[in-house]
Write a structure and sequence with these properties.
globular; 3 helices; 63 residues; mainly alpha
Amino acid sequence: MDPPIRSDIAEKIAPDTGFFSVWMTVFHEHPDMLKRFIQAFPGTDPNCFDDEGHAVSRPGGRL
């Protein structure tokens, strides 16, 4: 079962406070949280991340 605090962090606290990259760094060992942050932050393209929520290489910065 998923602890409710994970949902609160990913769906309420993180998007309300911002700092996407900080949240991604703090939770870098928790793919479930990374995926939640990717979904929760408006304007974040899920195609820029792998199945575990880690950024994918984009040579030249192109999508």
